[in-house]
């Protein structure tokens, strides 16, 4: 009798565990927060089904890397170092994340990208219009 109770409890536990692991409507969505400062690392595109990435030419030689700062307030700040003195120019706008889409609005220009990868160390996005892939690192 004791064996039957243990077996019943074990089967009940497995049943409860299996039903608690159902899928939801966030398939493929990462739970890593998107807020943070990301340094521009690589850009590229997909050629013949393969990602082709190069070091970001936007980063001026001898300067800090350009960056994207996504703040908790939904403000987006783009930092661009350029010129012989590596002058920093910051442009501010907003961003909205909806599932695995990221929409950046700077002035009157908006662009929407697929979030291809989001980890504690990397944000990789692909522009939905141009197909350009941009990789940022923390």
From TrEMBL:
InterPro entries, per database record: Lipocalin-like
The UniProt record lists the keyword Signal: yes
Lineage: superkingdom: Bacteria
Keywords, comma-separated and alphabetical: Signal
Domain Lipocalin-like: 34-125
Membrane-crossing segments per the record: none
Signal peptide (from-to): 1-23
Protein name per UniProt: Lipocalin family protein
Originating organism: Flavobacterium psychroterrae
């Amino acid at each position: 009798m004791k064996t039957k109770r243990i077996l019943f409890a074990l089967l009940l536990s497995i049943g409860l565990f299996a039903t608690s692991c159902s899928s939801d409507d966030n398939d493929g969505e990462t739970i890593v927060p998107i807020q943070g400062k990301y340094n521009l690392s690589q850009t590229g595109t997909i050629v013949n089904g393969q990602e082709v990435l190069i070091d970001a030419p936007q980063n001026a030689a001898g300067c800090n890397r350009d960056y994207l700062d996504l703040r908790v307030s939904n403000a987006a700040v783009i930092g661009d170092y350029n010129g012989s003195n590596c002058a920093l120019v910051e442009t501010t706008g907003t961003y909205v994340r909806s599932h695995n889409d990221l929409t950046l609005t700077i002035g009157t220009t908006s662009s929407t990208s697929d979030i291809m990868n989001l980890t504690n160390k990397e944000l990789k996005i692909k522009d939905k219009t141009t197909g350009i892939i941009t990789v940022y690192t923390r």
